[in-house]
UniProtKB/TrEMBL annotation:
SUPFAM superfamilies: NAD(P)-binding Rossmann-fold domains. PANTHER family: 3-OXOACYL-(ACYL-CARRIER-PROTEIN) REDUCTASE, NADPH-DEPENDENT REDUCTASE BACG. It holds the Pfam family adh_short_C2. It comes from the Bacteria. It comes from Comamonas sediminis. This is SDR family oxidoreductase. Belongs to the short-chain dehydrogenases/reductases (SDR) family.
């Protein structure tokens, strides 16, 4: 069965990834969802799509999803890359292994999935890749050291990818969420946000769906903050 539009959501079992999957479904996309918890597979079934339980740190798991989606729908128009949670800790107490784990969780998740999907998009004549990153990628905070390290690298990877693959009409953008309601709320964090509230996972999902749409056809290589005005740089 061929669909007009097909999206894959990696790490789409809960939180922002699941919200993105639901928003894309509402926009008319057929879905493939990967998550390690099994929730992504259940959500895919609920939305009439293809689900695989597996890890974005395992190429074979992601290949299984790509193959299942291609077998069912014959194309992939959108790839959404979510991430899990990497190591934290006092800056100089973080081990080499945990820095490398941060790259696995926050950077190589995108590289692996893009390797699998970009050639498919190239053959089709285009596609959109959206990575859920972090507002702290450019204003690093001690709270999230491995995330900030890896996601600033992801921003560089995104620029290079766009230089290489823009000619094939493949776009890549990063969404940079601030404090989102899928995290535990803390009053002092909320008070620091100009809009005086946490963002909603659905608001991240809506941003992802926009970046996937034809309305964003001339947007590529960008890092789009969805943080209620929290970050200060201009």
């Amino acid at each position: 069965m061929n669909q007009s539009k097909v999206a894959i959501v990696i790490a789409g079992g809960s939180g922002m990834g699941a919200a993105a999957a639901r928003q894309l479904h509402q926009a008319g996309y057929a879905l493939g969802i990967l998550s390690s918890s099994g929730k992504g597979e259940a959500l895919a079934q609920e939305l009439g799509g293809v689900g695989v339980t597996g890890s974005n740190q395992n190429v074979a798991d992601m290949q299984k999803l790509v193959d299942a989606v291609m077998a069912r729908y014959g194309r992939i128009d959108v790839l959404v890359n979510g991430a899990g949670h990497g190591p934290k800790g006092d800056l100089l107490s973080i081990s080499d292994e945990d820095w490398i784990k941060g790259l696995e969780v926050y950077f190589l998740n995108v590289v692996r999935a893009t390797r699998l999907v970009a050639p498919i998009m190239q053959k089709q004549g285009g596609g959109a890749i959206i990575n859920i990153s972090s507002a702290w990628a450019f204003e690093p905070a001690a709270l999230f050291p491995t995330s900030a390290m890896a996601r600033s690298g992801l921003a560089a990877f995104t620029k290079i990818f766009c230089d290489e693959y823009g000619q094939h009409n493949i776009r890549m953008n990063n969404v940079l969420p601030g404090w989102i309601d899928s995290l535990p709320k803390k009053d002092e964090r909320q008070a620091a946000v100009p809009l005086q509230r946490y963002g909603k996972a659905d608001e991240i999902g809506a941003t992802v769906a926009f970046l996937a749409s034809d309305g964003a056809a001339y947007i590529t290589g960008q890092n789009i903050r969805v943080d209620g005005g929290l970050m200060r740089h201009v």
